[in-house]
């Protein structure tokens, strides 16, 4: 496996860091955005990228500008979605240059996943076969609502939602109700997992088992969508 440090140009918004993690026998590449409170090098992002790499999924992780420059407040939706688009373009270029080319997917953890779907709802992301959401933040903790799901009907590629049943940012009934009308949305519940995909010891499950389920479900999704886009 190889790892490459890259820079992602954002035009008037400058540039941000990116990191390509490429397994020896990659079959897919995923443009992977971080959550609101982390960055591309956070332990949760590293562990996810490592687990995906072990299954043959390359990742292009990248920072949003606010994290690149040490600001606490997330970027505006306009800046965040522009960053997603730039990352997908770079990932597409990298995918095209690898062997016979790799299928391209996009997505992210929490905020990063939501900004990816928002970008795709505005204009299709070129070359992206599907979107993978690792803990979609349907609403703030303790404030159940569905307004953050309104744009999902305008996303025209398959979406995989990987969601913990104890996620405080996604009430199960509200998330299921929001996704039920969307024929391109697939929801996979991770039993006993929270927003960070962590489980209590008393659950009888381990964090490693949850991560294994995340990777297995993701692998099935990308392989199916790569063959039948």
Q: What are the segments in which pLDDT stays under 50 over at least 5 consecutive residues?
A: none
Lateral arrangement of strands in the main beta sheet: 1-2-4-3-5-6-7-8
Q: What helical percentage do the residues reach? A: 25-40%
Structural shape: globular
Total number of distinct structural domains:
1
Mean pLDDT metric: 95
C-alpha termini separation: 27 Å
Oligomer status: single chain
Radius of gyration from the alpha-carbon trace, in angstroms = 16 Å
> What is the name of the CATH architecture?
3-Layer(aba) Sandwich
Largest sheet: 8 strands, mixed
Instruction: State the fourth-level CATH superfamily.
Output: Alpha/Beta hydrolase fold, catalytic domain
User: Count of DSSP E strands?
Assistant: 8
Quickly name the level 1 CATH class: Alpha Beta
Portion in strands? 15-25%
Question: How would you describe this protein?
Answer:
This protein has 229 residues and is α/β, with parallel strands linked by helices. The protein has a single domain (2-227), classed as Rossmann fold. It is built from six helices and eight strands, in the order E-E-E-H-E-H-H-E-H-E-E-H-E-H. The chain has helices at 43-54, 65-68, 77-96, 111-122, 172-179, 207-227; strands at residues 2-9, 15-22, 28-33, 57-62, 104-109, 128-134, 159-164, 185-190. It has an eight-stranded mixed beta sheet, sandwiched between helices. Helix 3 packs across helix 4 (111-122). The longest helix has 21 residues, at 207-227. It starts with a strand and ends with a helix. The model has no long low-confidence stretch (mean pLDDT 95).
